[in-house]
Structure formats: structure tokens, C-alpha cells
């Protein structure tokens, strides 16, 4: 009986350690946040930019939803009309419609890196080898969360800003139009209609 109790205790310790270590993975933190509702109703700073990277509008709110302002062509698959590409943003119950601008939704506490010099030349002298294995390893590391640098530019290629994080997880939501979502050290960043580069930070150190 005593041995069985010891075995159970050891198993509980191992299980607890595993849960704690896994909760550090970006993808699991991301799923947990979604279950808790942290991604719906958190406070965001919303910035819009024109093609020349000029900020044209700043808003903030704690209840943010994003979707298409749909017409009949969006709803009817057999329709020969043009589907709407108008973005409908609801901010604390009020509506904003927008088309064409770059929009960045940054959760509170997620700020652009000040004074970051974007490199124009990067030399990679070693590492890698077997491409399928490299891709598999990178995919695994992405799910855990990698140290990455996010360089965002306007649709004309003019720099807007840079974000960095030690644990970055990237997804492309299938329910949000032309949107990329990043979990950066537990904070959400949504990028709509922008040019961007997401690069492993060790390549530019």
C-alpha cells in the first residue's frame, strides 16, 4: 500500500510538472486564453495607417469584434455579384466601417520597439542542413513560441513599426478577413492589410 501511495505521489508530481511546463508553450497559452475569453473583451489600442505609413486614426476599447460588413453576395455562394470587403469593427458597442487602410490592434501592454534599426542585409553563415527536418523543427518551435521580430510596413512598403517578443506564436484566423494574429509573450496583436516580415530574432542579433 505504501509503495502504491508513493507511486501515485510521484505520478502527481510528474503530471504537475508537465502541466506547468506545457502552460509555458505559446500555443497552449493561446488556447487557454481563448477558453477564458481573454481574446474577446480585452482592452486594445487600434491604429489605422494610410499607404504612406502615416497614422490616420487612434482608438481604444475593451470590447472589440471584427468581421465583414456582408452583402448578399457574401452569404449566397451562387450569387454572381461582388462580395463585400468592407471591414466592420465594433468598439464597445459602436461601429466603425473601413476599407483599404492598414489596421493594427495591439493589446494593452504591447508596444512598438522604439529606435529599432531595420537591417537591410542579413548574413546566415551556418546552421540547418536537411530541409524537411529544419521545417519540422521550426514548426514545432513555432507552436512552443519562438523569439521573433515583427517588422510591419504599409502596403506601399514604408515602415510603420517593429514588435519583438521572447515567445511569439503566429496564426491566420479563418474567421477574420485579411488578418494575421500573433501572441507575443501572452499579448495579442492583430495585423490587417499590411506588409510584414516575421523573422527569428537570432538572425538579426
Automatic annotation (TrEMBL):
It comes from the Bacteria. InterPro entries: DUF5052. This is DUF5052 family protein. It comes from Tissierella pigra.
